[in-house]
Amino acid sequence: MGDMDLFAKLVADHHDPLVQISHAVHGIATFPKLSAAIGSRMVWREREYIVWNLNNYLGLANHPEVRSADAEFASRYGLATPMGSRMMSGETDDVEQLEQELADYTKKPAALFLNYGYQGMVSLIDSLTTAADWIVSDAENHACIIDGIRLHRKGRDQIRMFSHNNIDQLESYLIEIDRVRAADAGVLVVTEGVFGMSGDQGALREIVELKKKYDFRLLVDDAHGFGVLGANGGGTGEEQDVQDGIDLYFGTFTKAAAGVGAFVASQADVIWQLRYTMRSQIFSRGLPGPIVAGNRVRLQLMRTRPELRERAHTVAGELQTSLTSSGLSIGKTNSLITPVYLPMDPLAALTFLTRLRHEYGIFCSAVTYPVVPPGIVQLRLISTADHDIGDVGPTVSAITSVYHESTGQ
């Protein structure tokens, strides 16, 4: 018989370039084991490096108040509390208070705390839309949004992807949808507050302006803006002064707060309905009590310690200015994420990273095609409040030196 075993089919093509690359970079560019206390300097393979690839924007991972609170709550609650899904037996005062604090912080009537950002977004899209509805999404949206759309039970003929931040194309799709949509069809536009790879902000102000002409709801995934953008850290909507125009504001505790969990904030009746329809929350255990209570402490620090945001932005500004002055391209970033686009053979990326680490003690992430166009290697540096201006000089010097030596330019 010609049938192939499922496992045999999965691992059949050992000559696939992606398979070969994955084995070559494993433990180096992918799945590296960093140790020591989380901060701007960590240990990899028994050597200390300046680290630029941690989601710890405000430096809260090892903040003394956070560490103290985490230890206290772990002792008080243990990891078994609550024992069950929130709907059945896992509701607590802490999670309800956290939701009210999130609603206040994001200037929305209500909020729903979610176990994880990825599963939360996938489930949110499913709960929000029916088979009759349309979804219009930025082409560079995060994988959780893409998978939420893919896994949704609607046909592809009601999905449109507009080029990154291309408002003219978005409007053309809205015109098309208005012309053909059924009477019971709603429209959901999805974008990000800050795009995690390129570091540029979503065109929220322009999208909100379109709401004056077209009937749609706007969902913004602000994982990389929540806590670090805006006068009070309220996120990209606050930064662009359009928070009122965002119908569903989605954020996580995994970036600025160095915690676990996510949330969506919106009008109260919508949040109530989501509470009873988001399958990823209904059919999974609530997060342990120490995590939820610890998030309240993290949120309080986000609200009351603006100097943490200021420090991270000062480092990012210096880093981005220095890289640009050195002739390197950082795209259109206007956040704490700094991409560095290097015209280089992707096969040279591993050698580049190895030299950057071993010769200069700089640890950052890099991606190649298909994440970026062929012939480009993109470094991704994340500035945090743990970094110091003194970290910038050696980092930029190292990147510049290795790049010029590698390419002969």
Automatic annotation (TrEMBL):
Enzyme Commission (EC) number: 2.3.1.47
- Pfam families tied to this protein: Aminotran_1_2
Question: Keyword annotations for this protein?
Answer: Acyltransferase, Transferase
Question: Entry's Gene3D superfamilies?
Answer: Aspartate Aminotransferase, domain 1, Type I PLP-dependent aspartate aminotransferase-like (Major domain)
Which residue ranges does UniProt annotate as crossing the membrane?
A: none
Answer whether the UniProt record assigns the keyword Lipoprotein to this protein.
no
Main EC class of this protein? transferase
Residue ranges of domain Aminotransferase class I/classII large in the record: 48-388
Keyword Acyltransferase appears in the UniProt entry? yes
* Catalytic reaction equation(s): 6-carboxyhexanoyl-[ACP] + L-alanine + H(+) = (8S)-8-amino-7-oxononanoate + holo-[ACP] + CO2
Q: Which GO terms describe its molecular function?
A: 8-amino-7-oxononanoate synthase activity; pyridoxal phosphate binding
Q: Which cofactor does it need?
A: pyridoxal 5'-phosphate
Taxonomically, which superkingdom? Bacteria
PANTHER family documented for this protein: CLASS II AMINOTRANSFERASE/8-AMINO-7-OXONONANOATE SYNTHASE (PTHR13693), LD36009P (PTHR13693:SF3)
The name this protein carries in UniProt is 8-amino-7-oxononanoate synthase
Q: Which organism is it from?
A: Mycobacterium basiliense
